[in-house]
Amino acid sequence: MADRDEPPLGSALALLEESAEDLYENAPCGYLSALPGGPIVKVNQTFLTWTGYRRENPFGRQRFRRLLPAGGRVFHANHYTPLLQMQGTVREIAVDLVCADGSRLPALINSVQKRDAAGRPLLVRTTVMNATDRKEYERELVRERQRAEQATQAKTAFISMISHEIRTPLNAIMGVAHLLGMTELSPKQEKFVRILNSSSENLLGLVNDVLDFSKIESGKLSLEERSFDLRQLVHELVQNLRVKAEEKGVALVAQVDG
Fold it and tell me: How many helices (H) and strands (E) does the chain have?
């Protein structure tokens, strides 16, 4: 015997049907069903709430493509409908829906075409996801990228300006060192002038490297391949560092294998 506290089977089924209908109407996504030719025959309350339409207007014989802006209608006719007819489903299609007040609702739609046993289309069921937050996130990403690009451009311009400003007094130092080398100097003074010239040239090379770095960021750097004298390079490096080494009482010696 059935428990006296259990509801009758008919009441339980009615409750289940009511729960299913409530779940459909107030789902977190919009639902709409349309005939193969396009007329909408059913929508849920979530879709109506998002778009501001009333159930009896414009739905009843309204076609889904009429809810799209002009560009969306072209996409619907040339891409959405042929794809749906060919494979029976479309997934993650981004569209704008025209709301009752004329505003646009960014949405992602997924549609499935239901067919009978003979393969004839019966109904198109579409799930609508509100993409407002996603669109705002995408716009924020674009704004952040633009700010990052502007900051990079400002940094590159600053580095370029500073590098050019450094080259002006550096060229003057190199010019004076060259003139000084043309005067009568003692052997020790000649050594100091050579170090001054070498250090100035190395500093100028460093400044040029900084400029090259800014060119790398702007995509304007071109590589150049050329030969150089390794022994001469090592000799110049040692000469540049020897003064500091001597000040600290450190012997600095370089040996390059033959």
Answer: 7, 5
62 or 246, higher pLDDT: 246
Q: Which residue has the tokens 């040996």?
A: 255
Q: What is the pLDDT of residues 208-253, one digit of tens each?
A: 877 777 677 666 767 778 898 888 888 888 877 887 888 888 888 8
CB atoms within 10 A of CB 182: 8
Cβ-contact 32, 58 below 8 angstroms: no
Answer whether 76's CB lies under 8 Å from 65's CB. Answer: yes
Asked if residues 89 and 113 have their Cβ atoms less than 8 Å apart, the reply is: yes
- Give the pLDDT of residue 110: 92
Kindly write down the DSSP assignment for every residue of 26-90, as one continuous string. T-SSEEEEE-TTSBEEEE-HHHHHHH--BTTBBTTT-BGGGGS-HHHHHHIIIIIHHHHHHHSEE
Q: State the helix-helix crossing angle for 132-181 and 187-218, rounded to 10 degrees.
A: 160
Angle 250-188-200 from CA coordinates, rounded to 5°: 75
Q: What is the pLDDT of residues 155-188, one digit of tens each?
A: 877 877 887 788 888 888 888 888 888 888 888 8
